[in-house]
Specification:
extended, hpI Integrase, Chain A, 2 domains, single chain, two-stranded antiparallel sheet, 218 residues, 2 strands
Length: 218
């Protein structure tokens, strides 16, 4: 645990741990993490300090740490440029079973907006060949995206597999598809959830920008 390596005073140990030591560690971690990630760090730290307090290893109450507040919709969309997504798909050009599997996974997320968990749950029985439909369920997958982005050599550092789902939504929006229809395709239950995917599109805002009025002198 990072706290034991960098947050615990070596001269005092757990028994001499103080609130100021914890505050200093949280301040250190805040420089290395986003507020979203820092919430998880503090959550683990709280559980550890609560456990230590209950066993008498530390003073009780040290687990009462404030967490940063995160607001829904505060971050920009994670959508990628469509040309970049096409290049990523084109970089998976082999014919091995793994290449074919990985291409299909990325294609389903980019062209149909499926969640990684939904792709991972697909089986042959999920396909209705006569109706031409897929039955989607929920489980978990991410390694394929990370593996393929690293091998592609494309500027995708920091992008997650969910970026393909965001790209799908933004691509539909730019083609004039309504937000309700986009939300239905994404499987959202509310327009609010869909709006998070579409909250900023600078290129689409430029045509409606008004000119700055000039100041006239008498």
């Amino acid at each position: 645990m990072d706290f034991l390596l960098r947050g615990l005073p070596p001269d005092r140990g757990l028994s001499g741990l103080r609130a100021a030591d914890i505050e200093a560690f949280v301040k250190l971690k805040s420089k290395e993490n986003t507020r979203q990630s820092l919430q998880h760090v503090i959550g683990h730290l709280r559980a550890f300090l609560r456990y230590c307090g209950e066993r008498g290893e530390t003073t009780t109450g040290l687990d009462l740490i404030d967490t940063p507040r995160v607001y829904r919709g505060e971050l920009p969309p994670r959508a990628l440029e469509w040309t970049l997504v096409q290049k990523l798909l084109a970089s998976v050009c082999g014919q091995s079973p793994r290449d074919r599997r990985d291409y299909t996974i990325l294609h389903l997320m980019a062209y149909y907006g499926l969640r990684p968990s939904e792709v991972a749950s697909l089986q042959l029985s999920s396909i209705d060949w006569k109706a031409g439909t897929l039955r989607i369920e929920h489980y978990g997958v991410i390694k394929v995206f990370n593996y393929r982005t690293e091998r592609s050599g494309l500027p995708l550092n920091g992008a997650s597999s969910y970026a393909l789902r965001h790209t799908f939504a933004m691509r539909l929006l730019r083609r004039g598809v309504g937000i309700k229809a986009i939300g239905d395709l994404l499987g959202h239950r509310s327009l609010e959830a869909t709006s998070v995917y579409l909250r900023i599109d600078i290129d689409m805002l430029q045509p409606v920008a008004l000119p700055v009025p000039r100041i006239t002198t008498a």
